[in-house]
Design a protein that fits this description.
The chain is mainly alpha-helical. It has 4 helices and no strands.
């Protein structure tokens, strides 16, 4: 029974009665949906990107540095820093 959800617990979690759960969902075997009902999100792995050239990395770094500096100025202007 490891991984299965007791229907009593499920009814309480849903804020309804055990009779309603049995009446409407008795055809569903909880074991069929353990992954979906667990609350744990499974992330698909992303394909690895090709290695970027040093010039591309420098350009990206410069762009991010500029954006960060703009944010700092904006936050200082608003009095957040």
């Amino acid at each position: 029974m490891s991984g299965e959800v007791c229907m009593k617990v499920l009814a309480k979690q849903c804020g309804t009665s055990l009779q309603m759960i049995e009446q409407h969902y008795s055809y569903v075997v909880p074991k069929m949906f353990t992954r979906e009902l667990s609350g744990v999100k499974v992330r698909k792995s992303k394909p690895k990107k090709a290695t970027r050239s040093p010039a591309a990395l420098a350009k990206s770094h410069a762009r991010l540095t500029k954006q960060f500096n703009e944010w700092v100025l904006e936050y200082k202007k608003r009095g957040c820093i």
